[in-house]
Amino acid sequence: MTTSPAPQRGGASAIETLTLQSGRQRLSVLPTLGASVAAWDLQWRGQWTPLFRPWAGGSDLYATACFPLVPWSNRITEGGFMHKGMHYPVLQNRAGENYPIHGDGWLQAWQAEAYTDNSVVLTLNSEQYDGDPYTYSATQTLTLHDDGLEIDLQVTNRGADELPFGLGLHPYFPRNAATRLQSRADGVWLCGADPIPTEHTQDFPATFDYNRFAAVDFPADGPLVDNCFTGWDGVSRIDYPDRGLRIEMRMENCNGYSLMYRPPGLDYFCLEPITHPIDAFHMPGRPGLVDLQPGASMRLLTHFKVSEL
Q: CA-to-CA distance for 277 and 269, rounded, in angstroms?
């Protein structure tokens, strides 16, 4: 494992990069930048080939290759949530967003606690960051196996009260006209312009259905997808015929939810393994959220397997 400074655009400081290399894979991690991934590459056909979209530099987590979502995923409306008769406020945390998004772990510096040539353990202790109600500890273990990357994300409630928790990952995958995706779903939450869910349907809008392999590249005037899908079986496959590669994303403890972000006209898309839908805090039954007593934990285990087509 090597440690190297990565330039931070727009400033004189540097963001530390930890680089693992095992076999034909290389993984670069940014512990202090929200425990994000800078790059995951494969030595393939005589060159290093990106499997995640590489980090663009700078301090914006949305420019990285992947980052953890803890202690919840996606957006929360109404300025927070009610739990056992108490209102817990949650503040907006990103410019341009109408609602707080993706928890607060991605906004904090994590520590590299242990590492080998093929694995690193990143840890965070968070105490009501920026006024959030959550006090927790989190670990993210990233391991390069012979067949790909494993990300093990865990959170433990360290606060005095029971609270609802959720987890997710935000990987960015490259795409072009040849890229194909297969990801099972039995329905999708339609959204308003926010985009907050407005209704659930089993009638997929045009180009939203990936139960069979379909293109993920659309022109600049194509439809945006920023929606939660239901009925996911925890396995998605991305084929790159032009590179002769397949990436299989497998969420081991899947409970049926995935989120897709497919911006029109750009060379990437996101397919997020998540434990709960967008704004589950205000849905009947709070689907997917886990009420953690003090000291209790939950886990999201995801494998990204790469193979030859």
A: 18
Amino acid at 19: T
Using an 8 Å Cβ cutoff, are 278 and 74 in contact?
A: yes
Domain range spanning residue 112? 2-308
What distance separates the 2 farthest-apart alpha carbons in the chain? 60
Percent share of the chain, pLDDT over 70: 96
Q: Mind listing the pLDDT tens digit for each residue in 77-98?
A: 999 999 999 999 999 999 888 9
Give the CATH number for residue 290: 2.70.98.10
DSSP state of 55: P
Average pLDDT over residues 144-166: 98
Under 8 Å between Cβ of 105 and 75 = no
Structural domain count of the chain? 1
Amino acid at 227: N
Give the per-residue pLDDT at 220: 74
Beta bridge partners of 230: 187, 257
Q: How is residue 7 annotated by DSSP?
A: E
pLDDT for res 6: 33
Q: CB neighbours (10 Å) of residue 21?
A: 16
Neighbouring C-alpha atoms within 13 Å toward the C-beta of 71 = 30
User: What angle (nearest 5°) sits at the alpha carbon of residue 267, between those of residues 219 and 12?
Assistant: 135
Q: What's the rounded Cα separation, in Å, for the pair 8 and 24? A: 27
Query: 66, 51 in Cβ contact below 8 A?
Result: no
Structure tokens that stand for 54 in this block: 């590489």
Cβ contact 169:192 at 8 Å: no
pLDDT above 60 for 279: yes
Q: pLDDT tens digits, residue range 194-231?
A: 889 999 999 999 999 999 999 998 777 788 999 999 99
> Cα angle at 106 between 289 and 127, to 5 degrees?
75
Note whether 279 and 191 are within 8 A (CB): no
> What is the pLDDT confidence band of residue 8, given thresholds at 50, 70 and 90?
very low
